[in-house]
Write a structure and sequence with these properties.
Blueprint (H helix, E strand, L loop, with lengths): L6 E3 L2 H4 L3 E4 L1 H10 L7 E5 L4 E11 L2 E11 L6 E7 L5 H12 L3 E5 L10 H21 L7 E2 L5 H10 L2 E5 L17 E6 L7 H10 L2 E3 L8 H16 L3
Parallel strand pairs: 1-3, 6-7, 6-10, 7-8, 9-10, 9-11
Antiparallel strand pairs: 2-5, 3-4, 4-5
Length: 245
């Protein structure tokens, strides 16, 4: 098996040049950690579908110069996979973001559910959100994605309801629900939304609001998964049935 070239991130304008200067943290990682040498292959993406297939030509100021050999546009996937993720404790949120990015989730929405233990406020909330976004970015590069998942600002119940009403299909993960997620036929286009509750579960009020907005309760099988795992598993099930895999 031929090894795949590493993926790095640069601005869209930089990808339009015939020679890309990979500088800053990306350049240092390429030169000092990956130790790429002239003649080796590397891909550079803008995170929004544009891929530049490159060859390293020289080291430059702690970074690299890369000659562009070809460019290609990767269309935004359909259906668009969104996971509304109740905010878990500790670093489990970052774990969830990493795994969801790897399987192909396109949008991750932190949800301040009533039974969430962490409370994202002021500086703490900003730092936590920043960590989620960095995690999505790094996981996207590792998994060779042309599109970096969007990690939105935290949403309330009202925000989740708005997402449900705009979706082509919205699902609330609910242990013991009559409908099995594995038997659901996802739409071919539009927004496909999965709502993952906190460890303590979704309240009756939250559940009622989501059902009224049009979300379908679905189970993931006979076992109960952690909130940091459930979104990844649900996304994998749906993506495998949507034709994206």
């Amino acid at each position: 098996m031929v090894p795949q070239p590493p993926v790095f991130l640069a601005d869209h304008a930089e990808l339009q040049r015939d020679v890309i200067l990979l500088s800053g943290a990306e350049g240092r990682h390429a030169a000092a950690v990956r130790r790429l040498q002239p003649g080796e292959r590397a891909d550079v993406v803008d995170g929004a579908g544009l891929v530049a297939e490159c060859v390293v030509t020289a080291q430059s100021g702690g970074g690299l110069e890369l000659a562009v050999r070809a460019r290609r546009e990767v269309p935004r996937p359909e259906p668009l996979m969104t996971v509304v993720q109740a905010i878990p404790k500790g670093d489990r949120g970052e774990l969830a973001v990493e795994e969801m990015t790897e399987v192909g989730v396109d949008r991750i929405m932190p949800w301040a559910a009533a039974r969430c233990v962490p409370v994202w406020r002021a500086e703490r909330g900003a730092r936590s959100l920043a960590r989620w976004r960095v995690t999505a970015r790094e996981a996207a590069k590792q998994s060779r994605r042309a599109w970096i998942p969007e990690v939105t600002e935290p949403v309330s119940v009202a925000g989740v309801v708005q997402v449900i009403t705009r979706a082509a299909c919205a699902i609330v993960l609910e242990p013991g629900a009559a409908q099995s997620l594995g038997r659901l036929s996802p739409p071919e286009s539009g927004d496909l939304v999965v709502i993952v509750g906190p460890e303590g579960g979704i309240t009756d009020e939250e559940n009622a609001a989501f059902r009224t907005a049009g979300a379908t309760p679905c189970s993931l099988g006979p076992t109960v998964l952690r909130t940091s795992t459930a979104g990844t598993v649900a996304a994998a099930v749906l993506l495998s049935r949507s034709g994206r895999w």
